[in-house]
Write a structure and sequence with these properties.
mainly alpha; 13 helices; two-stranded parallel sheet; two-stranded antiparallel ribbon; Four Helix Bundle (Hemerythrin (Met), subunit A); disordered N terminus
Length: 379
């Protein structure tokens, strides 16, 4: 084999000679797929209904993350060779599909759309599972008002996360801000693509603009996950003059502090406490046409604080929003690399299509959140 033949068939481990087209013999997708599969199996074995099962699975979790990191390194090593290390190569061409219905469309774009279709099936299954349980299991409020409960005994019911989150504007604030953040991030990634494709501007100006907009997208994605962690685990205090608008409470509790957990088999909320309702009529009330009201008037129900097993409803919330959050995190990893590459002048009109491919993925992540927010936060 001549040296020229070897040059035309570079190593699947990178770097790649982009003058002969986009890489199609890379090991990176296979390595990362294996790493993700190993990670999910190891993580599932490490926890059971929110309980840590022991440290013996932790080494496998970190080993799987190492495999994923190796796949990312191979991918980035190949990609870096065009636009930064291979900036002199100006003859990039994309292999085209030949079969119906993707004829004459870039193969990498076809692959991305196939990937997004598979992702659509993942989120469709999560949404359908949520709706099945939402309508199949009695709502906790309905069970409470029916009077078919006894204090001290837990009843199985569905408690929507929106009952907590939408209870005040402040609880809703992180999710609302996140919605606007992702919508704006779709705009910034489009702007990055716009400037990367421009041929009639100075190279240094293009570099600065692409870096600025990819960096802005990265910041908004970080903001999203930060607010998500605050919402789930941390909560935040309120200034004193806002206490009256939060039922008198000085803090917005996290979902963790509220007890909204996937292993919550004895969940309690003050909206299901007859004594609390009696002392806070401005916040809650028992409908006069409810069975519980009639039984308490007749003296056949002692009232009290209802306990609920909400493991199913909490699980559907955390699995769905957590899966979406994992996709946002994946976007952050990609954006970190892309912003660094852009800062080195790595994106030009010749390879701006890479930003377009990422943008398709990012728009999908945004669209999913636009559906998640009303389903899980408002309804």
């Amino acid at each position: 084999m001549s040296s020229d033949d070897h040059h035309h068939h570079p190593s699947a481990w990178g770097p790649h000679d982009w003058s002969h087209g986009a890489p199609h013999n890379s090991w990176a997708p296979i390595i990362m797929s294996g790493g993700f599969a190993l990670f999910l199996f190891a993580l599932a074995a490490a926890y059971e209904w929110g309980e840590f099962m022991g440290w013996y699975n932790v080494p496998m979790v970190f080993a799987s993350l190492g495999v994923i990191a190796l796949g990312l390194f191979v991918w980035w090593r190949q990609d870096w060779s065009y636009g930064v290390d291979g900036s002199d190569s100006k003859h990039l061409w994309e292999p085209k599909s030949t079969g119906v219905p993707f004829q004459n469309i870039d193969i990498r774009k076809v692959a991305l759309w196939v990937f997004l279709m598979s992702e659509m099936m993942v989120f469709t299954s999560l949404f359908s599972t949520y709706m099945r349980y939402r309508f199949g299991i009695p709502n906790c409020k309905t069970v409470f008002e029916s009077g078919e409960w006894v204090e001290g005994s837990s009843v199985v019911c569905f408690e929507p996360a929106g009952h907590l989150i939408a209870s005040s504007w402040f609880h809703l604030a992180p999710g609302a801000i996140n919605t606007f953040a992702l919508i704006i991030s779709s705009f910034t990634v489009v702007q990055a693509l716009r400037y990367a494709k421009m041929k009639d501007i100075d190279d240094d100006l293009r570099r600065k603009r692409v870096t600025r907009y990819l960096g802005a997208t990265w910041f908004l994605a970080i903001l999203f996950l930060t607010l998500k962690m605050i919402e789930w685990f941390i909560g935040f205090p309120l200034p004193e003059f806002l206490h009256e608008y939060n039922h008198g409470d000085s803090t917005i509790k996290s979902l963790y502090a509220e007890g909204f957990l996937i292993n919550a088999d004895s969940y309690q909320h003050h909206a299901y406490d007859t004594h609390y309702i009696e002392t806070h009529p401005e916040d809650y009330s028992i409908p006069e046409d409810s069975a519980l009201y009639a039984m308490m008037q007749a003296g056949t129900h002692p009232g009290g604080h209802m306990m609920a097993d909400i493991q199913v409803s909490a699980t559907t919330f955390y699995v769905t929003t957590g899966t979406h959050g994992a996709h946002v995190f994946g976007g952050i990893v990609g954006l970190t690399y892309m912003t660094l590459k852009a800062a080195r002048g790595g994106y030009t009109p010749d390879n701006a299509v890479s930003i377009e491919y990422f943008g398709l993925y990012w728009h999908f992540v945004d669209l999913v959140w636009v559906l998640v927010f009303p389903f899980f936060y408002l309804y």
